[in-house]
Amino acid sequence: MNSNLMNNLQRDISYRISSRDDGRIGLRATMNDCYHDIVLDVVVNEETLTIEEISAEFRKCPTTDCPNAVKRLERLTGITIGRGLNKQIAEALGGEEGCGNLRNLLLGLLPLAINVKAASGFTDEQAMMDNVRKQMRGTCAGYPRLDD
């Protein structure tokens, strides 16, 4: 019998997006497992996709040092969500002073701001999805670059 306390670990990650009346996008990521309860909040300018505010709260974590990584989030204030984002996140939150969990949450959360911007102003779902496809072209396998 293999006894490993991590065999039954369940980790839940959730992303929430809200368009605000002030022309900004609110993004929230949460991560919960038996060792973590982390809430990450980001406010992005909808027009420029620039990060204006970013914060995180470690409600539960395996060590008292984990919350120290929150200080490194300020390095992401002012960056634009787009090309080079993964590298900027890795530089800001990598290494012994960073946090792999915050890094992973951001990698899943921040690109959603691009979707919000691409979907803005549409009342017809098909037209919105057509615009999202156009805006996301070349970013992943789901939106391949087409020769126009």
From TrEMBL:
Pfam families referenced in this protein's UniProt entry, alphabetically: DUF2889 (PF11136)
Organism domain of life: Bacteria
Protein name as annotated: DUF2889 domain-containing protein
Organism whose genome encodes this protein: Pelotalea chapellei
